Every structure is written in C-alpha cells, then in structure tokens.
Amino acid sequence: MPAAGLSSSTFVLKNGWRWPPVFIFRTHHVTFCVNLKKVKPRHDASLHHKKHRKQGTHGNFLHNTHHDPCGLAVGGIYACITLQLPLPLMQIAVGALLAWPTFGLHVEFDPELFLVLFIPPLLFADGWKTPTREFLEHGREIFGLALALVLVTVVGIGFLIYWLVPGIPLIPAFALAAVLSPTDAVALSGIVGEGRIPKKIMGILQGEALMNDASGLVSLKFAVAVAMGTMVFTVGGATLEFFKVAIGGILAGFVVSWLYGRSLRFLSRWGGDEPATQIVLLFLLPFASYLIAEHIGVSGILAAVAAGMTITRSGVMRRAPLAMRLRANSTWAMLEFVFNGMVFLLLGLQLPGILESSLAAAEADPNVETWMLFTDIVLIYAALMLVRFGWLWAMKKFSLRFLKKKPMEFANWTSREILIASFAGVRGAITLAGVLSIPLLLPNGSGFPARYELVFLAAGVILFSLFVGVIMLPLLLQHLEVADHAQQLKEERIARAATAEVAIIAIQKMEERLAADTEENIDNQLLTEVSSRVIGNLRRRADGRNDVESSIQEENLERRFRLAALRSERAELYHLRATREISNETLQKLLHDLDLMEALLIENQ
Fold first, then answer.
1. Is pTM beyond 0.85 here?
2. Does the structure show a pLDDT above 60 at 10?
3. Where are the domains of the chain?
4. What 3-state DSSP class applies to 331?
5. What's a GO biological-process term for it (predicted)?
6. C-alpha distances in angstroms, 140 versus 131, 242, 303?
C-alpha cells in the first residue's frame, strides 16, 4: 500500500479525495453512509509509486486486506442513504466503486493465501450454526442435495460450460462447475430475512449449504490438481481418493476440536481463565484444523466443517467460563460478518478489472462476441436452476414411489415449495472464495487456462443469482403461511416451564441444606423470605403453560420496568463519574455489568 497520506481508516485516492465509507447494517436492508473530504495530495513517500498512478492506488493482498474493513464499518457519518437491497449486493457495489478508475483502488490476490484466510473460518462458522436436530432428521435430504446433486452439477454443468464457452478447456470447466455447486444460506437470509422461509425448507437448505460447501470445494481441488498435473484422473482412483480425504478430514477436525477442549481444561486448571486467551485459541481453531489436515494429506475443508460442528456439541463450550461463552458468541458473529463482507467487498474490488480483461479478451478473439459473455452467464445460471429444480422434483417422485413407509420431506413439498427451494440456491461467499483460490500459474510457469473467464463467469453467476433471488423469492413467498413461530413459541414455553420446575426443586433442597447448616448462621426468617420470593417468580413461570397471555404480559411488563431501571442506573453512573465520586475504572466495570443485563433483557424480547 502506498505510504502517501494513508491510515488504517482512510484511503487517499489519486484525485485527492479521502474515502472512509461507513456501513450501518440493519436486519433486512443496509444503510450506508459516505464521507468524502478533499485533502491535499502528498508527493513525498509515494514517488516510487509514480509509475502506477495511471492505474490508481495499488497494493498486494496482504497490504490491503487490513484496509478493506474500512468499506464495512469505519469513518464519520455525513450523509445516510437507505436502500432496500441485500447486503451482499451493497458490498459488491461499494467494492466496485472503490476500484473504479475514478478512485483507482486495486488489490492483487495471492490465491493460496486467500484460500487459507477465508475458507476455514467461513466453513467453521457454518458448522457451528448448523441446527443439529434438523441436520439429523433430514440427513437423507441433505446428502441427496449436497453430494448427489453436486456430482450431477459438476459433471453436467461442466460439460455444458465446455460446450458453451470455446475458450475454456474441459478440466477448468469442471473446476468452474465445482465452485458453482455450493449454495449460500447467509446470502439467502440477506435476501428474504430470518423466518420468512418455512423451517422445514430452511433446515434442509442450511444443511445443504454446509455440506455442499465441502463437497464442492473438494471437487474443485480435484479439478485443479488434474489441471496442475499433480493428479491423474480415473473414476475409481478419484472415488477412493475422495473417501480417503473426506473421512480423514472429518477425523482430523474431531481430533483438533478434542485437543482444543483439553487445552482449555489445562488452562483453567493452571489459572488461565482469561477469556481473551480462550477466544484467541477458538479463533485459531479453524485455521489449525485446516492446516493440520492439509499437512497430513486429507481435506482441510472438511476438517474445518467437522471442527465447527463438534465444538458446540462436545461439551467444550458448556464447560467454558460464562465470560468466555458470552464473548465467544458475539466475537464469532462479528468475525463471520466481517469475513463474509470482505469476500463480497473483494469481489467488488476485482470486478472492474475482471470486466475489463474479459471484454478485452473477447474483442481480441474473432470467434467471441462481447454480448456472448453475458449470455453465457444467463445460460449457466438457467442450467443450474433447471438441474436443481429437476433434481428436487425427481427426489419428490422417488420418495412417493419407493419410500412409502418413511418418505423424505420432499414428498410433502408442493410445486411452489420446490420452486422456492430452487431459487433459494443462491451463490455467495464460498463460490467466490473458491474461484479466487484457483492458482494464477501452472507448475511450468504458464497461466492457468482461462482463469479470467472462470472468475468472470463465477462472479456473474453470483450477481445474477442474487438479483433473481431478490425478485423471485419475495413473489413466491407472498401469502405463504409460516407456522414455525407458533411451534417455536410452544417449545420455548415448555422448556421454560420445565426448567422452572427443576429450579424450584433445587432451591427447596438448598433451603433445607442452609437451614441445617450451623456454620452459615443465616436467619431462618430471611432464608424463608428470599427463597419464597424466588420460588414464587419461578412458579409463575412454570404455570405459564395454562395462562400464556397473562404470562407473556407479565414478562413484558417486568422487562420494561427492568430496562427503565437499568437506563437510570447507567445515567447515574455517568453523573457519579462526572462529579468525581467514582473512578473511570469503576465506571467501566459497572457499565459492563449493566450492559450484560440489558443485552439479556433485549435478547429475550
């Protein structure tokens, strides 16, 4: 990154404008604020970059990735524009705007570094969030989509791309089909919002997105290995190799997660309960899983997935200190947002260059018309949707005919729900990260065949799938009744009542123990008064099964009183600090306690 006038939160562009874009993200749309200030150009330390000024501001991947979050969350607020567009599209648009010749910011990628930096944490986060119950209940449906459909997509769409685009050889065509096979549940939620798609569909789509990320990227790795000349493809050999790297990767992820759990217990035993240390180890876990698995010759992709699925179900997080659990959840939510956002932002930064080089290549080739490039994107996307819809329809018919005793969930889907599941197969961050991870050069020093075309087509399909999803999914979801919320509320009420009853028994036992304990020296009247008050609150919650409306009204009223009390306490703390009655250290400690209590109350609304 040139040194002239740059800071970690500001880009000074060649026309003298300082650019710190700001994002304030909301649930289903994005509000972004732009701050532009004119600054004087600097001519001292950047003279050695003079030869690059016609091309704009340059830097390599390592130098620029730490500046890219500026496009996500840094800077002052001067003007805010609210647009009802999915977040990924907004991030791509901002990246493209930054890289446009007017601003001239360009980023050079190291594909191997990109793969290691972005793929493991994204897959780990997907594994962490996967709903276990739905994953196990719909295992047949998920593996039918994530393995069989991926295989059909790689072979069928690969041959289509080879036939459709003359400049792409067969093996790179398979590589492109492999990166186009994963779907993105995060991008889907950005389009339709949480809870809009019925849970019976969304649970399958989330499980599919997790598993086809792994299967698609493993297929990509095979295709790249064949293109690089490091692997000779045979059906039997590829099948054997697939199962070897898949099973080995899953086992590696389990082992690394187990070692992580043991290390946490070791740290706790030796007084290392510092949450920051434990969270750093958790952040390193997906990278450790990936790198160790790759080092021993198995799938690092599946190792990261397995580590994510294991970490929340192995009891490691349950035994972790409270402060660590609270911070880990919020930290990973932020990291997932940043990594997803940076992938789309980096796509936008690459987009003008990809478009320019692809159009230049099309003009230089007499057999290719410029309009054909965009037609290829539409045709490839249409083929992906047809294959997906046809596979879902075939699985529905197969289940109705051959699995009558225990049919798959597809048997109950209507044609409308099959269409929803088809258009819900949007492409996103994993597809982009995969295609950008394709090597620039072959071992002999020549360029990877048709790499620019692969990136251009993949980026085009991502954008087109998002645009089509924005249009089609809201139309298909109109007037669709979603009964999942009532079921979830019912489960919550049952769980709250059951836990309240167990808590009452525990308090009664504790009251008896304290009353009999002479060393505690607690007044019996005080003991009875406190336990009766706590048990009374719990009993009202336990009786909420029979009086739901009254219970909800009481909880809402109590929450409002508690929030009002917390906010007045916060104001008083600032007053005490202003009058020098308490120190800043005391203020920060007590504010942290109030923030935790307020976050808990707001979360339960």
1. no
2. no
3. 11-84, 111-482, 496-603
4. helix
5. sodium ion import across plasma membrane
6. 15, 20, 22
